[in-house]
Each structure stands twice: as structure tokens, then as C-alpha cells.
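Lecture 7 notes: from sequence to structure.

We start with a single chain of 331 residues. Read the sequence below before looking at the structure.
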Amino acid sequence: MNGEREVGAVVRGRWARWCAGVLFAGVSVVVGCRVADTDAITPVAQLLSFLPWLLVPVAAGLLLALVARWWVGLVWGVVVLGLLAWFIEPYGKTVSPDGAPVASFRVLTANVEFGQGTPALVAAVREYRPDVVFVPECEYTCDARLAETLDDDYPHRRVVAGGGSDGSVLLSRFPLRGTDPVPGDLGMPGAVADVRGNAVRLQLAHPMPPVPGQLDLWRRDLGALRDFAADHRDSATIIAGDFNASQDHAAFRRILDTGLYDAARLRGDDRTPTWPARTAPAFGVQIDHVLVSEEFSVREVRFLDLAESDHRALLVDVTLHERERAVRTAP
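Now the structure, written as C-alpha cells:
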């Protein structure tokens, strides 16, 4: 009888070690790519989106290693846990413009999921009255609905027309001077706004999603946004939309490294999920962003639920300052 118990204990211990090893190995690959500053290949790029949630399998692995008295595994798990905790911290620095404030306004970005969330967007615009509205996935009927209902309040617009996820619209209370869209597989219109006598460059972001088989397209679109940001680093700039990427993706961090700042990060909300809306805010990832150049301070950030859309909207109050040397602080 004792022999059977001993055999059973050995089998359970081996099973626990094997399961813990599988969990640690899988998470180690993802964390290793984060350390190496690469998005790698499928499924790493997709798993990087949910980096904070990888704490769950690591914790399960640690429990299994403890039950099995697998001390090497415990050390392995603790190291992986420490690296995860390090990289979950907000990326980048904050900024405090020291120039005099010259204009304050409100920005809204809302992916309306193939136009399905257009009625909810119209209601949100009427309630919160943003000055600039970025609308990814605004297909033909969405574009027509916005023109019909909001043209009086938003007489200035830039559109890349398209069906499904291809179309996007930029609405503004401020006069706009059109610019060429950022090249990409989905529509990304842009403009220069005259904000009470100050030129502000506006650019909608909507790269391809990082789905299997399309990572090269996703990287290329994010690279185009990175090049745009680098080319206009001397201008007051806002890039907003559905980036299909989080701060845990190297391709997105390279956009921030041009000198832009994530508005949600500046207000301490960099881990608040925007997708998928049906599980947010309990579970999800922040892939919708408002990025601002160093001339801007951010007063408030709010996340809005839009019926019939799989994304939450992002409402940001910003203040434009005279361009002087900004004060950057470490995270």
C-alpha cells in the first residue's frame, strides 16, 4: 500500500513539474522577446498584447513547482515573474511643457467597428462635444451619417473613403488644411488644423491588426506612422486612433521614441483596456491611443463605452503650450 502511495506521489510530482515547465517555457519565450525588443512571430506578437495577464500562468506554474518541490523550477518562475513585473511598468517618460498655454481643446477617438457604432458615436459627440474626432472603420454609411448629423458643428473634415474597415474620417471644429494620408493598408487621413491661430498636425492611426499571416503588413503600417512622427517631430502633433498595438509591442514603442507621449500614460491610465469592449474594463488591452507631442499637456482622459462597437472610445482634454524646452521626468 505504501509503495502505491509512493508511486502515485512520484507520478503527481512529475506531472506537476511537467506542467510548470510548459507554463514557464511558454511565458519565457514571450518575455524573452520583450527583453530583446522584438515582436517576433505569431503567436508572440499576439501574446505580447496581453503581457500583464501572463502573470496568471506564471503564478500557476509557481504553485505547481512548489507542490512538486521543484526548486529549480521555483527559481525559474521567480525570475520570469520579476521580468514581467518590470515590463508591466509604464513605458517611457512623462513631459511637463513649461511654455505658456495658448489653447485648450478636446479630442475623441472611436473605432466604430465597420460603422456599426455610428449611432452611439453621434450620441457621444453630442454629449461630450469634442473639438476633433478621429473615426477609424467609418465606412460609407458611417461617413454619410456623420455628414448628415454633424456637419453643422463639424464643418471641416478629411476622409479616406472605403468599405468595412478601410474607411476612416477626421472631423474638426477647427479649419483644416489637407495633407496626404499616411500610406497604409487601411485609411489613415491627416490634416493641419488652425487651432486659434496655432498650427496643429492631426493624423488618424489605423494600421492592420497583427493577425496570423499579416504581421508584415502590421509592422509596415506602424513603421509608416513611426516615419510620419519622425518627419514632423518639430511640429505640434496629435496622432490618434486604433493602433492595433499596445506599449508592449516594439513597433508601437518606436513611435513613442520619436518624441510622442501617450495621453493615457500621462494620466496614469496606460493599462486601462479599450479592446475588446465586451470584457473591458475587467479584461483586455489598450490598443486605442491619443499620442501628443511635447507641446501638449493632458488634463483629463476618459474611456467611453460605445454600443455596437468592439472598441471603447477615448476622450482626452489637452492644452497646447508655446514651444519651449519641455521638462521630462523618468517614469
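The mean pLDDT is 93. Keep this in mind for problem set 3.
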